[in-house]
Design a protein that fits this description.
Blueprint: H1 7-19, H2 23-32, H3 38-44, H4 61-67
Helix pairs in contact: 1-2
Length: 68
C-alpha cells in the first residue's frame, strides 16, 4: 500500500498540475519513488518556494535543488 502524501507533497503535485495538465501525475510518481529524492527535496523546501513555474526547468523548485 502506498504511503499517505504529506500536505507539502500534495501542494507540489497541485503546482505541477496547475502549470501543465498531466504533470501532476509525473510529480506524484517522482515523489513516491525513493530513487529520485523528490520527497526529501519537498520536505526541505520552504512552503513559499513550492511554486512551479512554466518555462525552463531551472525555474522549478525541484530542479533548483537537484541542479544546485
Amino acid at each position: 500500500m502506498a504511503r499517505e502524501l504529506t500536505d507539502k507533497e500534495k501542494k507540489a503535485i497541485a503546482e505541477f498540475e496547475r502549470t501543465c495538465p498531466s504533470l501532476g501525475a509525473m510529480a506524484e510518481k517522482n515523489i513516491r519513488s525513493e530513487a529520485t529524492g523528490w520527497a526529501e527535496i519537498i520536505a526541505e523546501t520552504p512552503d513559499e518556494e513550492l511554486i512551479a513555474r512554466q518555462g525552463f526547468t531551472s525555474n522549478s523548485f525541484i530542479y533548483k535543488r537537484i541542479c544546485g
